[in-house]
Amino acid sequence: FTKPDFPRVYAFNLATGKPLWTADFPAQRILLAVGSSLFVAETEDHMHVLDLKTGAHAANQTPFAEAATSGDTLYTASRNAVWWVPLTGPNRTPLWHGVTTIARPFQPVVTAATVYVYGATKSSILDNTIGLAALYAFDAKTGLQRWKWEVKSRNDDFTPQGLVADDSHAYLWLLDTSHN
Fold first, then answer.
1. What is the pTM (predicted TM-score) of this model?
2. What average pLDDT is seen over the chain?
3. Which residue in 47, 51, 87, 105 could disulfide with 64, CB within 3.0 to 4.6 Å?
């Protein structure tokens, strides 16, 4: 867990409650534990990858705000980009990235061949979710953009609420918060 008044990551032995290790950096939140790696956000666009057993840094500076896994691959979405990062082997450097207009991304959705990224193209300081909405589809292996859909020229404000996808359809739920 992380402690808000002192940004440090702690690992505990669940049987004894004794601390196993700590990692000192300005951790914002723990994002994901996969295999032998712990992914921890420092900021919206900066992530640390720690070894689960020792707390040692396995990698650093990979963009990360939201993520999804598929097999041995981590797909991350950060401001204006989506990234493909291997979860196995010594290299945690992104192998591809795609560009988006999304200022506030939500968790990517991964199907067999496509990575979908959605979110707001502008954001509010108050809740980071209000704005015009966008949905992008990227090839899961190459990172090439397949298509995009954006709400443009509307007076409404949308809060993206969720996305579900399979190999043939994507369903995006948007909430109109403008009360128009």
1. 0.71
2. 77
3. 47
Pairwise CA distance, residues 150 & 164, whole Å: 17
Single out the residue of 58, 45, 107 nearest to residue 86, CA to CA. 58
Characterize the bridge pairing of strands 29-34 and 37-43.
antiparallel
The three state secondary structure string of the chain is CEECCEEEEEEECCCCCCEEEEEECCCCEEEEEECCEEEEEEECCEEEEEECCCCCEEEEEECCCEEEEECCEEEEEECCEEEEEECCCCCCCCCEEEECCCCEECCCEECCCEEEEEEECCCCCCCCCCECEEEEEEECCCCCEEEEEECCCCCCCEEEEEEEECCCCEEEEEEECCCC
Amino acid letter, residue 34: V
Q: How far apart are CA 21 and CA 53, in angstroms?
A: 8
- Assign residue 65 a region (left: φ > 0; alpha: ψ between -120 and 50; beta: otherwise): alpha
Q: Tokens 């443009």, residue?
A: 152
Are 21 and 11 within 8 A, CB to CB? yes
With b for 16 or more beta-carbon neighbours within 10 A and e for fewer, the 125-156 pattern comes to: eeeebbbbbbbbbbebeebeeeeeeeeeeeee
The structure tokens listed for 164 are: 């579900």
- The Cα–Cα gap between 99 and 108 comes to 14
